[in-house]
Amino acid sequence: MNHTKFLGAVALLVFSAGASAENYGLDMGHSRIWFDVAHQGYSTMVGRFSDFGGTLDFDADNPTASSVDITINTASVDMFHDGLNDHLTRIVTEEGEEPKIDFFGVEMYPEMRFVSTNVEDMGEGKMTVTGDLTMLGQTHPVSLNAVLNRTGDARGTPKVGFSATGTVDRTQYGMGFGAQFGIGTDINVRIEIEALASGT
What we know:
Helices cover 11% and strands 50% of the residues.
């Protein structure tokens, strides 16, 4: 390996370690996680998670050195209907049968977590963020299409804003309830994040 290639390899390792990425905490007053799912062809049902948190490391000069870690409280799922919310969160128990989980079973699985494993810089503020989503005790890869909306300053604190979209196949995690009746298996996710630099 010649000297130039060696220096290039060293630089790549430094960037990969996120040495120059700045840590940001989520601004929960201006961050949202929404999702939607097809309902038997009649409509697209919209819901959200109202309780989540996490951090991201962002390097504006080298987005591939960035990363994100978000944990969601599954009990905060909200589809704007008490009956739906109860079914989404509870463990179903019927006389003479073993308890079963139709959706989130929050008593057994109180959290979901997404941890990025790779960020690909697509140019012009666009990125593909690939990571591991853990839900119902199973972990599978998920890719998000992310856009850097803005970098700026909030009363002296560096601030960034991102939008991200992606699709999660719920059946991969064993959440197959209603699929045979036309309840969608692909869940479309929309994430709006504002984050403030930590330690400033």
